[in-house]
Amino acid sequence: MITKFVVLALYVAVLFLIGIVASRRIKAMSDFYVGGKNIGFWAAAFSARATGESGWLLIGLTGMGAMAGLSAYWVVLGEVLGVAISWFFMAKKFKRLSDKYDAITIPDYLESHFKTKSHILRGLSATVLSVFVIIYVSTQIDATGIAFESMLDLNYFYGALLGFFIVLIYIFIGGFVAVVWSDLFQGVLMFFGLVILPIVVWYSMDSGTEIISGLNKIDPALTNIWGGNEDPWMNVFTLLGFSMIGLGFLGSPQVYVRFMSVKNEREINKGRWVAIVFTLLTDAAAVTIGVLARVLFTESGQDPETILGVGGADVLSIMTENFLPFFLVAIYIAIVLSAIMSTIDSLLVIASSAITRDFYQKIFHPNLKDEQLTKLSRWVTLIMAFIGLGLAMAIALLAPERQVFWVIIFGWSGIAAAFCPVIILSLFWKGYTEKGAIASMITGFLCVPLFKFVFQNMEGIGPYLEKLDVLAPSFAVAMIVGFIVSKIAPKPSVS
Fold first, then answer.
1. What is the pTM of this model?
2. Among 101-105, 322-326, 337-341, 416-420, which is the least confidently predicted range?
3. Per DSSP, what are the bridge partners of residue 262?
4. Is 26 left (phi over 0), alpha (psi -120 to 50) or beta?
5. How far apart (Å, rounded) are the C-alpha atoms in residues 184 and 341?
6. For residue 27, which phi and psi values (nearest 5 degrees)?
7. Is 493 inside a domain boundary?
8. How many domains would you assign to the chain?
């Protein structure tokens, strides 16, 4: 146990060092929020992917692999397609326009793009972003507590608090620069940790052990790549729900701020291959770890959650404890925290920018100096972090049987459904209007809780919508509403 805490202490020391070094580069607001738009492709790609994956990858997706079997690989396909489309077809166009507008936040970009004279779109986007970022941050803090409890036998609440304060300190010190540099460090840990583990486990298994036959013995549904439900339509909706998770990469602010931050478009050309390979290998490895855990540690007729935790949340802990030397187990604790913290730090900086720059400065105090705003940003980051912490504690107390995978996806979906349709239409359709963008954002914002808490509980269609989850239908409705409103509303000129 002492070894684990020593490794954790070294990991934290590196993060704090990054924060201290980064703080010396904070001279203006653009430094705090987008690193002065001087980030290289390695840092941008690893930071974007580390942010996009989160605790969902190491705790949620490994667990999903164990629970769903081979059909969980549809998540991998969806993620790879989402990342590829984003980096190949959207990133450079978005970078070009955001530089043209001198934008350092997503609301900056939207207000400049639509040449709006009011602050409605800016205020709305900042509000929506703040709400769902807090929800998303709370899910990551929740995952932190689960990770500490599973891998260090530390009380859930103590673990959540410890992880929370670690990430808060280095963000508070170094802003976006610290976030990107720490994400690069954390992304490298995540990549090698995830890719190496299933290889080690594979070669440690008995030569006679067959993965497919093993899954079949436990439950034949686990080997059905099309889903194991007797209702074919239920399988269709399940696989769509898995594969459509990648829609969130087509405009989510925590990802697209990386495109704002890169030095130039050439860096995007280089970074896209890094991002795609990272996504393919880490996601496939995560699912494989879960599949292997199901074969090795569960039996036919047994409730897998009694062995692997709720939603398979203990899969990574069990696999590392059984197949790796003690010292490496300690390193994997740092890897899990890397996945979680690399998302929390980005989200908090994004939320801080929404409140301080997009609300406080742009709407109420346009003459506020950068030095004052940077100081305010740090305090707003602190306040929003504590709100997220409180929500995480509430979730843990009120929903002890929650599945990490789907709880995190809810926060991810809220941000994506509100912003991705707006970003896509603003980039590729000249007829898209400010009113259309407002309608898209409000629709996406409202549809996520409606599909989750209302439509999924309806008789008949409800179970199918539950399998589809909330992102795909909310995304589609927001796109359609934005298109219709833009067609019927007065059309201002856009750049």
1. 0.85
2. 337-341
3. 39
4. beta
5. 12
6. -120, -15
7. no
8. 1
